[in-house]
Design a protein that fits this description.
It contains two helices and two strands; from the N terminus they run βαβα. The protein has 72 residues and is α+β, with helices and mostly antiparallel strands.
């Protein structure tokens, strides 16, 4: 579950099988999705940026999944 209070995606092992859930900008993920999630991850954003839209956040996280899985 992509979540602002989660561990960063850089320090999380994303090589295991997973389902990535990114909620909408206004409401976030559904309550049911939050209850089912066993891991919350975030994207570090230094500087003045407070958030990313859901499409961009999902793209960044999928890139990190692919990056981790393509390196030994």
């Amino acid at each position: 579950l992509a979540h602002m209070d989660g561990r960063t995606c850089w320090e999380t092992d994303l090589r295991q099988p997973l389902a990535l859930v990114v909620g909408g900008e206004a409401e976030g993920a559904s309550e049911e999705a939050r209850k089912l999630a066993n891991l919350k991850i975030s994207i570090p954003m230094p500087g003045k940026i407070e958030s990313l839209n859901a499409g961009v956040a999902g793209s960044v996280l999928m890139f990190e999944v692919i990056r981790q899985r393509s390196t030994n």
